[in-house]
Design a protein that fits this description.
Helix content is 37%, strand content 19%. It is an alpha/beta fold and 135 residues long. This is Response regulatory domain-containing protein.
C-alpha cells in the first residue's frame, strides 16, 4: 500500500520518504509528519515490501523503518538494502524502553540512527534540514 502526494507548486523536486511500519497508528502518524514537512511519502508494512519497492526502481531520500517488522526485521532489511547499493539515510524507530537490538549491530549493518517512538515534528524537521543540506 503506498500513499503518494505532496506536489510542489514550483515544480521543484520534493524529498521522498519510505515509511516501513507494521503498526497502523505509527504508520499513519509518520505519514502525516513527513507529508506535512513536504515529503512525497510511500508506505509499506514489511521489510520485504521495502526491498521489492526499491528493487523495482523506486528511490527515496530517507527510509524510516520500525525495528520490529514481521518476517524480515529492520536489521535484515537494512543489510539487504545496503548490499543492493542504497546509500540514502535509513533510520530505525523503536518503542521507548523496548530496545530489542544491540545498537552497535544496527549501525554496523547500515542504520544511520535510531529514534524512540513517537517521532516528532522537530525530528522530522531536523531530518529534512539535514537532507536539504541545511545542517
Amino acid at each position: 500500500m503506498a500513499f503518494e502526494g505532496c506536489s510542489s507548486p514550483t515544480g521543484a523536486r520534493l524529498m521522498s520518504a519510505l515509511i516501513v511500519e507494521r503498526n497502523n497508528c505509527v504508520r499513519y502518524h509518520h505519514t502525516i509528519l513527513f507529508k506535512n514537512r513536504g515529503f512525497d511519502t510511500y508506505v509499506v508494512t514489511t521489510g520485504e515490501e521495502a526491498i521489492d519497492l526499491i528493487y523495482s526502481g523506486k528511490k527515496f531520500d530517507v527510509i524510516v523503518m520500525g525495528m520490529t517488522l514481521p518476517m524480515m526485521n529492520s536489521v535484515q532489511a537494512t543489510r539487504k538494502l545496503r548490499i543492493m547499493g542504497v546509500d540514502k539515510m535509513i533510520i530505525g524507530t523503536e518503542v521507548k524502553g523496548y530496545l530489542t537490538y544491540d545498537n552497535n549491530n544496527c549501525y554496523e549493518v547500515g542504520l544511520d540512527r535510531i529514534y524512540e517512538l513517537p517521532l516528532t515534528r522537530e525530528i522530522v524537521a531536523s531530518l529534512h534540514n539535514e537532507l536539504m543540506g541545511h545542517n
